[in-house]
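In response to a reviewer's request, we include the raw inputs and outputs for one of the modeled complexes. The two entities were modeled together in a single run.
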Amino acid sequence: MNSFIYDIPTKVYFGKNQLENLVSELKTYKKVLLVYGGGSIKKSGLYDRVIKFINNAGLEVFELFGVEPNPEIGTVRRGVKIAKEKGVDVILAVGGGSVIDCAKWIAGGAKVEFDAWEFYSKNAPVLSALPIISILTLSATGSEMDSCGVVTNPETKEKVGKLAQPLYPKVSFLDPTLTYTVDRYQTACGSADILSHVIETYFSKDDDLFMLDTVMEGIMKTVVKYAPIALENPCDYEARANLMWASSWAINGFILGGKVKAWSCHPLEHQLTAYYGITHGLGLAILTPRWMKYCLSDKTVDKFVSFGVNVFDIDKSLSEMEIANKAIEMLSNFLYKTLGLSDTFEKVGIGSENISAMALGASKGRFIDGFVPLYKEDIETIYKMCL
Amino acid sequence: MNSFIYDIPTKVYFGKNQLENLVSELKTYKKVLLVYGGGSIKKSGLYDRVIKFINNAGLEVFELFGVEPNPEIGTVRRGVKIAKEKGVDVILAVGGGSVIDCAKWIAGGAKVEFDAWEFYSKNAPVLSALPIISILTLSATGSEMDSCGVVTNPETKEKVGKLAQPLYPKVSFLDPTLTYTVDRYQTACGSADILSHVIETYFSKDDDLFMLDTVMEGIMKTVVKYAPIALENPCDYEARANLMWASSWAINGFILGGKVKAWSCHPLEHQLTAYYGITHGLGLAILTPRWMKYCLSDKTVDKFVSFGVNVFDIDKSLSEMEIANKAIEMLSNFLYKTLGLSDTFEKVGIGSENISAMALGASKGRFIDGFVPLYKEDIETIYKMCL
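The model returned the following structure tokens for the whole complex.
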């Protein structure tokens, strides 16, 4: 069992009618960069509410809008430029994970003289960042309470993450009612994303802290229970609230408990986004059950048994392999039937043309040292299983 | 479902060999007040290690030793006096919950001109406190990661808690190997305490956030699984680690998720400690199953069913009342047989002489507005069930 440091500084206002506390949280600052995506927050009225609170707090406001679903480094650069030129002292990200991720790169980029892409290309450390306040509108990536930001470089076809302690949002507002307008497809993709974050940590070669395994099983059960309710009734507060809090705790570092082994499905998925621009959660949904099938063996079956029994309530009296296979089948049914997500590459327009290049990209020339070690050839096989 | 603010600022170093980080954590300070209990940390060698780290960090050290198992306000006053006279700028608490609780009252008391008892007697707010660093040696109260300190006033026979955001330890060191020397009895009492913290939150009239219910069930399963292992083999790292992390998360505020209803067993137990000085976890162990029996009805049975099925794996096909009664029976067996704790007041030297006064004290002249409302008469009945 590995040692670890637990240090999650984000303060969270959770629940409806919490947004008015934005005024007191902003008051200590002078100039805010408001970061958001397309027009959805204008349509929903959220933009007007936020502007009103910023005005009440007495801040000068600058805007970066049009953040892409997979935020691009060019957008980050635009934000950094504004932040530096205007002397911004706080960033307010209003949106889903993409907007918050973009805000994180801007927050770090505003504090250095070099180009923000060097946080990745030269592995430059993020030693400080502008304070980030987030208002979450989509339960999925967990960016509202973690220290990671993912951006894409369309020129190099790279989608990369940067982790650093200064990137934790200082304050996040989690109001489940702000996700009422999230459509069926995005709700499904977000739920698949949450589930995947837990699965990546749960299925690990590192020793487990049993207590955290039980927490992970709980979060997975929560998604399995409430995602269908949110699909059925988008304004079900209980469902939206459970998905929202699950999204944060699936990836904020708590469940990790010192595990250091690499994730498996995420690097495979990042290639799909980089090459085809598909939604992250959808890519994960197609890949995960195939990856599981590929990894299942006498050596790994134990973890699948715990997963099947504790998350999907599968009959313990079955044989281990029966439980494991049934667990993968039930996960597939959940993703493809209950959530209604596409189950093959073909259905989302991915052919075999880039499989070799993507496998190389996912392995970065090395192997993925995860639950089961994956070399380029293994990754190719998993991609082919998805065709 | 209530809204809530999540704000737990404590940084935790978890695992063996983490203690050396004490040097870097202390370095920014000048004068430390080292707070500890009896001589156990001297016997175990921990005292010498800590002094070495303090010296390496270059701090001047002052000591408050002899903190009682239920820390008394007089001890707090001694600590406040040292802190003020010497200009202490950080408090280092080495011990279990009592030592950390005492350190919290000192940390708050050092910042005000009035007597620390007025935090309770006049409900004076704790607006600031000296930073607290804790090194935990007993998994039980969760004080290492919460904002509450409990002290006893022997003159007024009051045992009272104070909650305030500035009382969260800044840093806590959780090294499971430091609990290897905790004896059988204290390990059992500590485990009962952890379990009780979760039960108090789990059994609530407030609406549940299902996700947090699953987390609570997980923590309870963790205690039920690992307490017997720690009793059997005190140096089992996995067992001690699981109990330690469970103790923090059972009460740091996370599982609360906006529930505001009062706890029930704790106020009843605090009277036992105030009148008879018994160990907190033992008092809780005697009380909890009786309180459950008293509360069980057609109106409350649902929660007992979830508890029985998800924590004790009771057969779902039984009737609700059968499951509920079996759950209480299994909890009793765990506390009294597996952990070996005494199961009646008589066995711990408590007679009927103070029941009426204790019931009055527990209800503070009002009723306890918890899972089931408890008036003075209800509390008397529960006490009598324990005789």
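As requested, we also summarize the result in words. The first strand of chain A starts at residue 4 and ends at 6. Chain A has two domains: 11-178, 184-386.
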